[in-house]
């Protein structure tokens, strides 16, 4: 019988791009522009529920480890009370943007480039570990979560969309390539994986903060053209679909205390 972790891996594998499409892609998909995940100016936007929970655990101060940090939108929203940040990401342009923002704001930081949890041994522990919009890129969710748990002295906070973030873009894949996309996995299945691992999991609904839509809008058409393995000259057509199939705003926060 398939357990939750195995089910997650199986369902996520259903999103793999067929080989004949991937081989003909003019650009490698799954490469993300740092602009989509840049940290907003201090105090410009309200905290998400994930941010509130992370700040609560920080109390009067502490360090934050942001796994899959992007440009630091999740981590820099926690300064203050966070007094130091650690950012990891598999893309060097993301950790570079993270470090640049830290230098500009005078925030002590360390960055490590590479995939989590493979790089976990090179990453210091922190008071709080956060990870936003990353889990749907992780086939081995159990190892990912265990490494996060081991690195958090107080709390782990994950935030993802309720369903796979490309689920509402399934009509685009049908239109351009004639293929159907799967339904799962879901945030609730992720929570089940973590619960089965023995973590005291809490699940809360949330919505995307205003910055999510604003930072993605200017690069959305180019991003989805690349994700769909299409040439750049199809971007206007992709843009029409993107306008009528907006990125999901529903978020689910999955968190637990480690003490």
Describe the protein in words.
- With 259 residues, this protein is an alpha/beta fold.
- The chain has one domain: Vaccinia Virus protein VP39 (Rossmann fold, 3-Layer(aba) Sandwich), CATH 3.40.50.150.
- Helices cover 37% and strands 19% of the residues.
- It contains 11 helices and 7 strands.
- It has helices spanning 4-13, 19-23, 49-58, 73-76, 92-105, 141-151, 170-177, 187-196, 210-216, 220-227, 235-244, and strands at residues 62-67, 82-89, 109-113, 126-132, 152-161, 202-207, 250-257.
- The protein has a 7-stranded mixed β-sheet with strand order 3-2-1-4-5-7-6, sandwiched between helices.
Strand content: 15-25%
Number of strands: 7
The number of domains = 1
Structural class: alpha/beta
Distance between the termini: 32 Å
What is the general shape?
A: globular
Q: Describe the largest sheet.
A: 7 strands, mixed
What series of H and E elements makes up the topology? HHHEHEHEEHEHHEHHHE
Rg over CA atoms, rounded to whole Å, is 18 Å
> Which assembly state applies to the chains in this document?
single chain
Q: What is the CATH top level name?
A: Alpha Beta
How are the strands of the largest sheet arranged? 3-2-1-4-5-7-6
Number of helices: 11
């Amino acid at each position: 019988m398939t357990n939750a972790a195995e089910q997650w891996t199986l369902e996520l594998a259903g999103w793999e791009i067929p080989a004949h499409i991937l081989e003909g892609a003019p650009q490698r998909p799954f490469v993300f522009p740092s602009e989509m995940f840049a940290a907003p100016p201090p105090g410009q936007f309200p905290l998400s529920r994930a941010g509130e929970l992370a700040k609560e655990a920080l109390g009067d101060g502490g360090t934050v480890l942001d796994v899959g940090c992007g440009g630091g939108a999740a981590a820099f929203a926690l300064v203050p009370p966070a007094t130091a940040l650690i950012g990891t990401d598999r893309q060097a342009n993301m950790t570079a943007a993270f470090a640049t923002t830290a230098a500009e704001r005078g925030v002590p930081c360390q960055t490590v480039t590479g995939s989590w949890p493979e790089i976990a041994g090179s990453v210091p522990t922190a008071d709080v570990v956060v990870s936003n919009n990353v889990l749907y890129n992780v086939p081995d969710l159990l190892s990912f979560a265990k490494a996060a748990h081991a690195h958090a002295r107080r709390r782990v906070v994950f935030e993802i969309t309720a369903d796979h973030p490309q689920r509402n873009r399934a009509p685009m894949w049908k239109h351009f390539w004639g293929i159907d996309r799967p339904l799962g996995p879901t945030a609730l299945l992720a929570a089940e994986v973590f619960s089965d691992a023995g973590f005291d999991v809490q699940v809360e609904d949330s919505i995307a903060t205003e910055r999510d839509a604003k930072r993605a809008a200017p690069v959305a058409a180019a991003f989805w053209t690349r994700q769909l393995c299409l040439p750049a000259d199809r971007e206007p057509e992709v843009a029409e679909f993107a306008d009528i199939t907006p990125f999901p705003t529903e978020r689910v926060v999955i968190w637990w205390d480690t003490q």
